[in-house]
Amino acid sequence: MKKEVIEYAGVPVGIVIPDENRLKFIAVKYHVHDLDEQHFSSPAEVKLAIHDLMTRRDPKPIHA
Question: What value does the mean pLDDT take over residues 24-34?
């Protein structure tokens, strides 16, 4: 596991960092702050959680 930038709709929205054998998400955009400091098993799982969060909140993608 390594640090990785996470993008949504082509916009960087956070990073994942290794933490306790999982990946901790650090949000850098307000739109995904609800997921800040949550742990995930893979970057794909983070991206799915962001997609689910964003489509529940606002079906339009965010822009930089």
Answer: 96
